[in-house]
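Obj.: predict assembly geometry.
Materials: sequence records (below).
Method: joint structure prediction, all chains together.
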Amino acid sequence: MKRSVCVAGGGASGMMAAIAAAKAGAKVTLLEKNDRMGKKILMTGNGKCNLTNLDMNISAYYTEDKDSLVGKVLEQFGEKDLVELFKELGMDVTVARDLYVYPNTQTAATVLNVLRRALTYYEVMCKTEATVKNIKKESRSFCIETDKEAYTADRVIISMGGKSFPKTGSDGAGFLLAKKLGFQVQPDYPALTALICPVEGQKIISGLRADGAVALSIDGKKVFQDFGQIQFTDYGLSGIPVFQISRFASQLLWNKGKKERDRHCIEVKINLFPHMTREELYRHIENQLAMFSHMSYEDAMSGLLHKKWIVFFGRRLGLFKYPDALSIPRKLIKELSYELTELPFPVEGVKGYDFCQVTGGGVDLSCVDEHLQSRMQPGLFLTGEILDVTGKCGGYNLQWAFSTGYIAGTYAAE
Ligand SMILES: Cc1cc2nc3c(=O)[nH]c(=O)nc-3n(C[C@H](O)[C@H](O)[C@H](O)COP(=O)(O)OP(=O)(O)OC[C@H]3O[C@@H](n4cnc5c(N)ncnc54)[C@H](O)[C@@H]3O)c2cc1C
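Observations (raw structure tokens):
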């Protein structure tokens, strides 16, 4: 007799788990609360779906797990296995900047269509508009209760996601169910999100994008730094390098009362000239001002900085009051070069689940073995974002979802 497997949640990891289990010979039912599977996949990679990264290593993941389940998972099913599997399912890939893997069509819909076609090919019974409410262990099987009917299966895989972008279906119900089933669930927080950091003159620079370095410090200690395109907004900072550092601020600020938030001094410093030392930048500005010494500060700086930055720093440092570039004191040029390489943004909060790409926290990794099977309830598996692992931007989160889905599906079918 075929083993019966029920997968709760039809996102990236749930679809992969269902395909792997069916491929391994199980009779599979996939339950999804939305009217379609995999809504979130369509949004990934700005609609192109960055499905993995060729520089795959555990340092791209954050988890409290000391035994590195992440490493064991990636050893069993890594980036090359994923690319091979997609090829087997009939999808070619393309690699951007030697690292970032996308479908050859550069369209996220291709990934979703290929997964849905595979579900049909492997005869997975897909039930949409089926919201899983409860899972109960019966003597030799599990009963999976939805808002409509109940299903019985030998094995259950919970792939209900976290809380990010709840309109795609992942609204935290997975965490509640996991708690009810006795799993240890770490407090959740938005990871890979934007930072709320009000500064004077914010409106002037809102809408600007600039390549630079972003460094996060907590209580005066630099904890993380990243490079890339920074977006300046009317509430603070966004863009990939800001997303990469956001989790450290989010852990301290999310869901915390004012008193707790005020206990820490969290600050971002932006370096708009990371390719120069401060001394080099100072000389560069000095030369520029000397060359156009008879002109206004604004005109003299116009080849060096975007007009909005000229206004921002001009007001911030009082540079407009000098009649020409020649009369700007050296002390202020020093201060300008300092600010251009260490512009401080105090972090007051983070953008929430409607904005963030992944959820930090979730089911503690100590609850599952290397096949993602519950240590306390054999036959029950967990995959994807519901687990307490987050990856950096760049394909690491989908790889985690697909790897855990593939491994759990394969072992659940045994
Ligand atoms: C805007 C955006 C862009 C992103 N871009 C990338 C990228 O380019 N590369 C990358 O690696 N990662 C990216 N990510 C992250 C990636 O999408 C997630 O890590 C991944 O989708 C997690 O997969 P999952 O299956 O665990 O959860 P989800 O994809 O959230 O799937 C969970 C599914 O479970 C269903 N569900 C929830 N509750 C129930 C219930 N009670 N009953 C039945 N079904 C239920 C949901 O409707 C949903 O379909 C992005 C995320 C966002 C939001």
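Conclusions so far: The chain has two domains: 4-189+362-412, 194-351.
To do: check interface contacts against the pulldown list.
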